[in-house]
Amino acid sequence: MHDPTADFIMQTVCALLLSFGLWSNGDAVAPASPQDEDLGQTIERVSAKIQEEKSSRRSDLEVELACLYMKDQKEEEAFTTFLQALDEAPYEAYEHNPEEEEIYSKALKLYLEEVERPPGEVARELEGLLQPIIDEHPSYAFVRFILANAYANEGKWDLFFNNFYTAYKQKRDSFLAFRTLGIMNIKLFEKARTLEAKEDRRRKINSNLERALSLYNEDSTLYKLLIIFSPLPERRHRVCEMIEKIINGNAVIARSQIPFYVHEALEAGDKELARRFLDKAATWYQYSRVIEEMRKVVQDDKISDDG
Predict the structure, then answer these.
(1) 234 with 266: CB under 8 angstroms?
(2) Burial (Cβ within 10 Å: 0-12, 13-18, ≥19) of residue 214
(3) Residue 133 pLDDT more than 90?
(4) Which of 58, 59, 88, 121 is deepest in the core (most CB within 10 A)?
(5) What is the DSSP code (8-state) at residue 94?
(6) For residues 204 and 86, what is the distance between their CA atoms, to the nearest angstrom?
(7) Which pLDDT band holds residue 84 (cuts at 50, 70, 90)?
(8) CA 296, CA 88: separation in Å to the nearest integer?
(9) Which H or E run includes 297?
(10) How far apart are CA 211 and CA 206, in angstroms?
């Protein structure tokens, strides 16, 4: 079994962030303009206000500070501050609406769909569809979560922070809330400088993504992320667990991702699991060259059938 070293994880994460729409870095934050020369002073002023604030207004100020940090191209400070704001965010009432549920279901399918188009293009389509709905129905928390993530994929970080924060206050126990928290911790994992800091982020990634998966098991991205970020001693168990969930669930894995799971099953020493996974994959695709190639890989693998 290979060792998922920090370098390996970093390479894989970068690929995932781009290929799965997990906040592509394609639309980077623009450098501060001349009129923003006092940005540092503004950051200091808002930081001082936060230290003085004792009420629920504190989390609002932390969201404002996160926006300022991102504008100043300080991504680590921005996400760290925003996560703190979420921890301190007050609860607000949410009322279920059947009309919102229908809109959310269609938008979620588009957001999670693994398409050939760049994530930013899909995000712009979602923005065009969902922003007018939110303007008319500002209480639609589930729809707002998708809109927030679309803004993240466009690099519109102030709109992401404010929309996600608004939705989170209403539905912090939802699938997209946990999924997005997981992604934010992945971004901070990238920037962690010590092993201890990385392991702390790894625990938070796993905790949030596991909760997201328990609420919505059709998001194919989650299975791969949970394997990649599993601690080494738990990796074999996690590989088998995730592939079993795929086999028994409703998620459809993209053709391009099928080899990943086959190789992981073989490295875990479970040839039969690899075969069963391919049998499941064959129900998604009437014919796939990738599946046929992977069947040959499993057949030629030197692991004995009895493990």
Answers:
(1) no
(2) exposed
(3) yes
(4) 59
(5) -
(6) 14
(7) very high
(8) 53
(9) helix 289-300
(10) 8
Are 183 and 212 spatial neighbours (Cβ–Cβ below 8 Å)? no
- Alpha carbon distance 89, 81 (integer Å): 12
> Which three-class secondary structure state does DSSP give residue 38?
coil
Please give the Cα distance from 177 to 172 (Å, whole number): 6
| Pairwise CA distance, residues 123 & 18, whole Å | 13
Q: pLDDT-derived band of residue 167, with 50, 70 and 90 as boundaries? A: very high
Contact status, residue 213 vs residue 224, Cβ threshold 8 Å = no
Whether the Cβ atoms of residue 261 and residue 243 lie closer than 8 Å to each other: yes
Q: d(Cα 160, Cα 180) in Å, to the nearest integer?
A: 11
Class of residue 99 by CB neighbours under 10 A (exposed 0-12, middle 13-18, buried 19+): exposed
Tally: H helices and E strands in the chain? 15, 0
Burial class (CB in 10 A: 0-12, 13-18, 19+), 196: exposed
pLDDT of residue 125: 96
Q: Within 89-230, where are the H helices?
A: 98-112, 119-136, 141-153, 157-170, 175-191, 195-215, 220-228
3-state secondary structure of 269: coil
- For 191, residues 6+ apart whose C-beta sits below 8 A from its C-beta are 75, 76
Average of per-residue pLDDT across 51-69: 92
pTM of the model: 0.88
CB 271 within 8 A of CB 301: yes
Both structure tokens of 97: 């609406």
The letter for the amino acid at 129 is L
User: Which pLDDT score, from 0 to 100, does residue 4 have?
Assistant: 44
- Structural tokens at position 107: 């938008």
Q: What is the mean pLDDT of residues 205-225?
A: 97
